[in-house]
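Summary of Year 1 activities. Much of the first year was spent building the evaluation harness for sequence design. The harness presents a backbone, in tokenized form, and records the residue chosen at every position. We chose the following record to illustrate the format because it has been used consistently in internal testing since the harness was completed.
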């Protein structure tokens, strides 16, 4: 397992500020003690305030990397495209005391796995912390918003690299020629034929959810957040994990909630959990953080779709981080090679299902494993069945790639 060698200037600055606050606070306590003005209560209150401030200042650099970025454009590289805006509201809520969890492979009593899944694949699948919450979506019946389906095809530009199948959108300062050459090289990650998990599926933005039977409309009161796995990215991850297991890839699916009741610092919480799982299961080589996008054109919510085998499937986008010069992602090039292999495999088997892969200065905890990627399955406006279908298709392609990896 790889380690993050340098958290970057932000954390260094935070530590420095924390030390300064500590020095200032202790000096004040000492002065009060000399004058007899300090009490046990004032000392304890001061230390509590100091602890809170220290935590606030020593923010991991990870949290400044797309903390509020659920929307990722397929257009030329811009921070916040004019024609695609974020549809979710990020709200601070009171911290949770506990994360309800259960080790179960049933999700809200709904069928989230392919109907032809063999009964013995459980030996290759571990599912943990999958909640059993259910949504009451009957309250969201208004049709005061419009959903528009859109297919994101090939794009052009000097920053676009054409792969054998699919494309890379290079939003870094690295030459596209270099990126293209690296994308053709074989990644170094290797898997073993074992019942021990090789792939970990998590969800940093666990409550990201989808439309159900939108029929071209949506209820503007529905914010696209849900603790119900059957309607969220957790259900999509369940299909992906089950499909990988069906096809011989041992997989661990973790449904721990990281973004509710507090959204900010989700990546710090998912990082801690990922580190725990990698320590518990050192066999894991690949980490896939499954999200969904949030695309809109004004008040119109966009559902990225492709037609595969006569059915509508939500389009998929892989996001691969690039080191920014601070050595925060020391092995980013090998991760890029792995991402390119996945992009090629999924697009080859399912023409049109992938949006151009994003290669950008993102972090997303991609330093923790030999291969670690964010994959956006559809967007808020996609019908949940479209996304489940995409997860099944992608799972088959990924499994086939990994099984034949050494050949």
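For this record, the design step produced the sequence shown next.
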């Amino acid at each position: 397992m790889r380690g993050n060698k340098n958290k970057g200037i932000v954390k260094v600055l935070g530590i420095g500020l924390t030390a300064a606050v500590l020095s200032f606070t202790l000096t004040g306590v000492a002065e009060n003690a000399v004058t007899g003005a300090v009490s046990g209560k004032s000392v304890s209150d001061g230390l509590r305030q100091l602890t809170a401030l220290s935590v606030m200042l020593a923010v991991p650099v990870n949290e400044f990397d797309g903390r509020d970025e659920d929307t990722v454009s397929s257009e030329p590289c811009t921070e916040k495209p004019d024609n695609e805006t974020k549809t979710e509201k990020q709200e601070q809520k009171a911290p949770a005391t506990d994360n309800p969890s259960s080790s179960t492979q049933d999700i809200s009593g709904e069928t989230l796995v392919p109907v032809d899944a063999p009964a013995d694949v459980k030996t290759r699948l571990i599912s943990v912390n999958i909640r059993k919450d259910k949504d009451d979506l009957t309250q969201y019946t208004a049709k005061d918003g419009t959903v528009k389906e859109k297919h994101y095809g090939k794009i052009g530009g000097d920053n676009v690299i054409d792969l054998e199948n699919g494309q890379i959108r290079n939003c870094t300062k690295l030459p596209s020629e270099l990126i293209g050459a690296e994308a053709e090289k074989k990644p170094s990650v290797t898997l073993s034929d074992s019942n021990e998990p090789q792939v970990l599926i998590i969800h940093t933005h666990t409550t990201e959810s989808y439309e159900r039977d939108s029929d071209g409309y949506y209820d503007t009161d529905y914010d696209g957040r849900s603790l119900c796995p059957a309607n969220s990215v957790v259900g999509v991850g369940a299909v992906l994990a089950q499909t990988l297991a069906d096809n011989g890839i041992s997989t661990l699916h973790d449904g721990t909630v990281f973004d509710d009741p507090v959204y900010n610092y989700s990546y710090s919480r998912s990082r801690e959990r990922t580190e725990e799982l990698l320590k518990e299961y050192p066999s894991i080589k690949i980490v896939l953080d499954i999200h969904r996008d949030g695309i809109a054109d004004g008040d119109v919510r966009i559902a990225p779709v492709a037609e595969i085998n006569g059915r509508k499937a939500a389009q998929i986008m892989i996001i691969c981080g690039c080191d920014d010069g601070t050595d925060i992602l020391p092995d980013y090039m090998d991760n890029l090679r792995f991402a390119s292999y996945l992009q090629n495999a999924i697009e080859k088997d399912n023409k049109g299902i992938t949006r151009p892969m994003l290669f950008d200065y993102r972090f997303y905890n991609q330093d923790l494993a030999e291969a670690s990627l964010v994959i956006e399955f559809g967007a808020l406006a996609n019908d949940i069945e479209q996304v489940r279908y995409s997860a099944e298709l992608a799972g088959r392609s990924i499994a086939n790639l990994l099984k034949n990896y050494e050949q």
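Confidence is low (pLDDT under 50) at residues 3-69, 79-121. Quantitative recovery figures across the full test set are reported in Table 2.
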